[in-house]
Write a structure and sequence with these properties.
Ybab, Chain: A
Length: 97
């Protein structure tokens, strides 16, 4: 029982370490309507809309570019997270090594 608790605490510490490490990473995405920076925890740190896209006639385009920017940033962050985890090699999950 104590061994399982120790494994759980070790896993939680590793997760917190990973979260802290990823918070220091960021990706930037820019397209015709949006410029944004997302950190490794997938939190938006900066977000800018280009003023020419704010007219009602550009509503559909703006929605499309917003979706694309979020999807692109998320993919980039996930790739970066996977690379960091592989590089570090420190994150060993109980029962999976």
């Amino acid at each position: 029982m104590f061994n399982k608790l120790k494994q759980f605490n070790d896993l939680r510490k590793q997760a917190n370490d990973l979260k802290s490490m990823l918070a220091k990473e960021s990706v930037e995405v820019e397209n015709k309507a949006v410029k944004m920076v997302m950190d490794g925890n997938q939190e938006i740190k900066t977000f800018e809309l280009k003023s020419e896209m704010l007219s009602p006639s550009h509503k559909a385009d703006l929605e499309k570019y917003l979706k694309e920017a979020f999807a692109d940033a998320t993919k980039k962050v996930q790739r970066k997270m996977a690379m960091k985890m592989q590089e570090s090699g420190d994150f060993k999950f109980p029962g999976m090594n």
